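Sync notes, pocket subgroup
Present: LS, DG
LS reminded everyone that the earlier model was apo-only. Rerun requested with zinc ion included. Inputs:
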Amino acid sequence: MASNENCIFCKIIRGDIPSKKVFENDKILAFLDIFPMSPGHTIVAPKSHVNYFEDVEKTEVCEIFNIVQDLANDYLKKLNIDGYNILVNSHSAAGQEIQHFHVHIIPRKMADGIIRHKIPKNQATSEELEQILKEISS
Ligand SMILES: [Zn+2]
């Protein structure tokens, strides 16, 4: 299993840094974020060090998101919440601060004041959509 000497998540996974674990198996660890956006904010990460989402084996993507779904279901039942965000920041441009792939589960309550994805006011033109579609499809 790949482990990175200087990676903070690898240190948590190795037990060098203590964490509040909510789930663990041989491949995946879920633990409470120590800078929570809301109570129960959880990090779900593969134990094997991979930098980015696109580096994760497809079968492991399935396993990780199965755990994410189970935890989200648990939190809905147990935490008196109204919803949750599932968030992956990939690469620094998208706000990824720890270069070890991970998924955030952020429990939400109505009007909790936490950031919310807003639909931009500017609607794309058909030509703009066609242009990006060409790039994706090429
Ligand atoms: Zn790591």
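DG: The chain has a mean pLDDT of 96.
LS: The chain has one domain: 8-137.
Action: DG to write up.
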